[in-house]
Amino acid sequence: MDVQAVNRRVIEQFRAGGAIEGMHRDRLVLLTTTGRRTGTPHTTPMMFHPDGDRLLVVASNVGAPVHPDWYLNLLADPAVTVELDTENYPATATPLRDADYDRTWAEIVRLYPFFADHAHKTDRIIPVVELRR
Known about the structure:
Largest sheet: 7 strands, antiparallel
Distance between the termini: 34 Å
Strand order of the largest sheet: 2-1-5-6-7-4-3
Helix content: 25-40%
Number of strands: 7
Radius of gyration: 14 Å
Order of helices and strands: HEEEEHEEHHE
Shape: globular
């Protein structure tokens, strides 16, 4: 499967405002980070989890042994752009830590058990990232 082609299609369908083939629009966010090597913007569609007034994303990379590029990009530059439904706004990306991470990860795994499967495939700690306006 060509992941980049799928992402391009999802981004196009999301921005067009209609249905998104194979995905739930109400759980999808577009996250734009700045490339840590190139300095160019990169947009990635992903599932989000609402947590009170926070918007959270999970850097599971489907359990791969390495973090996803978008996560490495936001570590280098936490200024990101969020596209959520019809909103488009600048945000700051902050990985959760300590007790906040532990509580939130437990809740995410309870609600979305497939993330536990991703965690079992890798030795790395799967980051959870807050996107705050």
